[in-house]
Structure formats: structure tokens, C-alpha cells
Amino acid sequence: MTSKALSQTKVLLVEDESLVRWTGRKALEGMGCLVIEAENCFDAEEAWKRDDFDLVVLDYRLPDGISMDVVERMRSRGNDVPLIYMTAETERIGTDDAERLGICAVLRKPLNVEEFRKSVLEFTKIKADNSEDHAGNICEGGFDVVVCPTVVGEGNVIDICGQRELSSWVALRMDMTENIDDAAIKRLNEISVAKLRGGGRLCIVGLSTKMKNLFVKLGMDREIDILSGVDELRHLGRKTASPSERMSLMDVAVRSDNAGVH
Prior knowledge:
The longest helix is centred in the middle third of the chain and has 18 residues, at 113-130. Strand 1, helix 2 (18-30) and strand 2 (34-38) form a beta-alpha-beta unit. This protein is 45% helix and 21% strand. With 262 residues, it is α/β, with parallel strands linked by helices. The N and C termini lie far apart (62 Å). It folds into 2 domains: 4-130, 3-Layer(aba) Sandwich (Rossmann fold), CATH 3.40.50; 138-248, STAS domain (Transcription Regulator spoIIAA, 2-Layer Sandwich). The strands form 4 sheets. The protein has a 5-stranded parallel beta sheet with strand order 2-1-3-6-7, with helices on both faces. A 5-stranded mixed beta sheet has the order 8-9-11-13-14. Helix 3 (41-50) packs parallel to helix 4 and helix 7 (154-161) runs parallel beside helix 8 (182-197).
């Protein structure tokens, strides 16, 4: 399941075991989250100070100390970001600690991926319900900007583009996307055509060189604007309906200029 709340959720994942960290990251990215990793207390605290996170997922015992100490210090600084613990030492985190430190869930290792996803989804549901703007996604140049997961399937495209809260102008940010299946590409093209007919449009932002070459090879750049960065959206705005229309307008202008030359 992918939602705007998930696609705009930045998560700090603190775990020293590489396999658990990889599993947690893949689960989070699969839901559309932006993930920053840390392997110890020091790196976790530095990342936490440096950046604004929507959620912190962390292990209890780390190579250089107990993560609860980091949480205590961050809470003393007024940082109230929600927490999810995943640890083999669940008995170390009592009810009083959970309430005092704002711990949403304590998950036992070995990590159950479905249970983990459910806990994250519960958090994001609360986040979306309590959000003042409820939409929760970036708006740039008239476009609702939605971050896509690492692997994009047809279901992701349908979930994202079918959200009722989104405007008819949507930009899919694919900075993290490493793979997109054929069904998703076909669905993107269909949605783009439908949006153009309805006066909207669909853009794709931040593709890797490999992914961009694939899209161009398939001719998707004829109906979908493929942009390097979010900043380009403000320049694109609502000027025309599609790249093909812009080409037509340019062609008309050139022919008009040539008509005046004898």
C-alpha cells in the first residue's frame, strides 16, 4: 500500500545489524518512505540533530551504547518525533518508558516484516489524520509532487495517481526508483493520456540516466514531461498540455516566421 502520507515520510533507521537494517530499509522504501540510516548512537544523534524526521525506527542496544540515552537527549531538546523500537530486548522498554518517550510500538526481533509494515502504516494514518493540510505532499509549480518507492509496480501507480486528494497535475518523483515493471509503464502512459484529455498532466522527476534512457526509448517522453529536478516544475507550470503540443506550437511559430520571408 502506498499513500501520500507514506510517500512524504522521512524515516531515520538506526540498526547495527546489516541484514536487519537492509530488511527494514527495503520494507520502508517499498512503502514509499525516504530512509536515512545510522549504525550506532553517535551517528543516529548527529543525523537526528541535522535533519527533520517524521519517524525514527531504532534498535535498543547499539555498538556504542543504549539508544534510549540518545532518545532522552533528543527529547530534552524538544524533539518529539514518534519512535518505533525493534529489539530482542523488549522487556527493557516498559510502559512508562513508552509513554514518556513517545514510543509508538515495540517490535520483537527477529523482525516480522508484516508486523513492521503494519506499525508504520498505523503511524502514518495518525500522521495524516492530524495533519493540518492533510494532503501532506509537496506542491511545486501547480503540481502535487509524490515520492515513488525503489521498485514501482502497477499497483503503486494506481494507488498514487488514484488518490482523491491529489490535483489533476501530478509529478512523480523517482529519485530513488531503481526499477519499474512493464505493467506500471503501460499504466503510466494510460494515466498520462487520460489526464491530458481532462486538462491535467503527469510529469516524472529525477529519473536516473538508465531509467530516463528506458523511458525515452519507449517514447514516453512524447506524452509525459521527464524533468531532472523538482525546481523545473515551477518553470513548466501550466503553459501547455504536453510536450507534443509545445512542439506543435513551435512548428506553427516557425512556419509563420518563414511565411513572411520571400
